[in-house]
């Protein structure tokens, strides 16, 4: 959820029916609408996200990813880096993941292949 809200180039507008409408790239708009459908209050986070942004590398068709560093608004002394992009470019760079128990675990090669397939 945080990656969708912080790592995008969309903005929120209010339409004539007083609904919050995401405007921007179709893929990013679709992800934001998905969160809205889950009744996530997206406009509050998106309106204040620039106040927390430390650095940004926008999406690049050569790099196939975008990156943003955010000073977390709720966790003191915490900066999180969010990466969004094509799985075939991101997964090979991953060394760990969070397992089903929510614990950080080594990303084994067989699991990496399973994800990319």
Extract low-pLDDT stretches: none
Helix-strand sequence: HEEHHEEEHEEH
Number of helices: 5
Taken as a percent bin, the fraction of beta residues is 25-35%
Query: Numbering strands along the chain, what is their spatial order in the largest sheet?
Result: 3-4-5
The secondary structure category is alpha+beta
Alpha-carbon Rg, integer = 16 Å
Helix content: 25-40%
Number of separate strands: 7
Determine the N-to-C terminus distance: 24 Å
Report mean pLDDT, rounded to a whole number.
Answer: 89
Question: How many structural domains in the coordinates?
Answer: 2
Shape: globular
Largest sheet: 3 strands, antiparallel
List the helices and strands and how they pair.
Layout lengths: L1 H5 L4 E4 L5 E4 L2 H12 L4 H7 L4 E8 L4 E7 L7 E7 L1 H4 L5 E3 L5 E3 L2 H8 L1
Antiparallel strand pairs: 1-2, 3-4, 4-5, 6-7
Question: If you had to describe this structure to a student in words, what would you say it looks like?
Answer:
With about 120 residues, this protein is α+β, with helices and mostly antiparallel strands. It has two domains: about 1-85, no CATH class; about 85-115, no CATH class. Helices cover about 30% and strands about 30% of the residues. The chain contains five helices and seven strands. The protein has a three-stranded antiparallel beta sheet. Strands 1-2 form a two-stranded antiparallel sheet. A two-stranded antiparallel sheet has the order 6-7. β3 and β4 form a beta hairpin. The chain is globular. The chain starts with a helix and ends with a helix.
């Amino acid at each position: 959820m945080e990656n969708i809200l912080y790592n995008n180039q969309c903005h929120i507008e209010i339409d004539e029916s007083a609904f919050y409408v995401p405007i921007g790239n179709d893929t990013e708009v679709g992800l934001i609408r998905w969160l809205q459908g889950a009744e996530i209050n997206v406009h509050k986070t998106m309106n204040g996200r620039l106040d927390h942004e430390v650095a940004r590398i926008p999406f690049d068709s050569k790099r196939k990813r975008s990156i943003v560093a955010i000073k977390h608004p709720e966790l003191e002394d915490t900066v999180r880096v969010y990466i969004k992009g094509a799985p075939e470019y991101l997964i090979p760079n991953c060394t760990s993941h969070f397992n089903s128990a929510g614990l950080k675990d080594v990303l084994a090669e067989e699991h990496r292949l399973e994800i990319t397939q």
